[in-house]
């Protein structure tokens, strides 16, 4: 009798194990501390929403099994060296895919670590073209790159704003300088002159020296390649110096936080661009914004919808492949073609988004308004 009881107990344990749900780790990397932590948290929140949406439905159906996901979030501090440390930590933790990083300057060095570990990386925010030009098999992005965005910005400055003289400043990060370089090319191609090219850092708060030089060049438009933490104070100092040029920046400054940081210096002569559609024009944008506000009690900053689609691209690829193993689902990730929150998600041979839209915004009535 005792043997029978023991045997049944063992059988019971075996049945429980057979029905236990598999938990798969997904990584997320972004700056969660520092001056742009609000953007990093926004990115992480978008990834978390995707994971929670799938888990709330009972998990993903992968190879005939229901799989739930666990999000492993890491703070890369927007620092290249920390980014590689974080990347190795995620690989060592056994994640099956990574959504991140935010900054091109962290994504590019981290991508080598993921490549060596055989882990696919989908960035919802890194726009520098170099990210997908390294010939790594598992690197993708769900947002337009700087060639597309810089081209649109330069064209807009000359053909729409009528600028003949443009000054360009960048923060010397891979993102800021990359976007500034592409804007510079587009301004010249459109027939205007770049009258000043200055640089600062992504930690600076005092821009008076470079702005004084720019004032002497008398530009019609000042373009800044960098993040809102610098763009806001820079705009205040432009006003203090009495410079009358219009101000333009890219997606790193196209945030609600930029408006707060600029204070009364921001006006209708301030423009920014987003590598994507306005959230209200995204196919799933209205519902996403509503769900985001309900879940996190705040507004979408910039990158959350793209992070959501990045996570869903990985999960959908796993479902199609019937496996959570990167080597098996990577071909399906490359062949992604689905309607996400932000629009159609499909990648070209490099891993860039095929249909990368770019929208230019103007500050008006207290908000960014799509033009």
UniProtKB/TrEMBL annotation:
This is Leucine-specific binding protein. CDD domains: PBP1_ABC_LIVBP-like. PANTHER family: AMINO ACID BINDING PROTEIN (PTHR47151:SF2), LEU/ILE/VAL-BINDING ABC TRANSPORTER SUBUNIT (PTHR47151). Residues 1-20 form the signal peptide. It comes from Thauera linaloolentis (strain DSM 12138 / JCM 21573 / CCUG 41526 / CIP 105981 / IAM 15112 / NBRC 102519 / 47Lol). Belongs to the leucine-binding protein family. Pfam families: Peripla_BP_6 (PF13458). Keywords: Amino-acid transport, Signal, Transport. InterPro entries: Leu-bd (IPR028081), Leu_Ile_Val-bd (IPR000709), Peripla_BP_I (IPR028082).
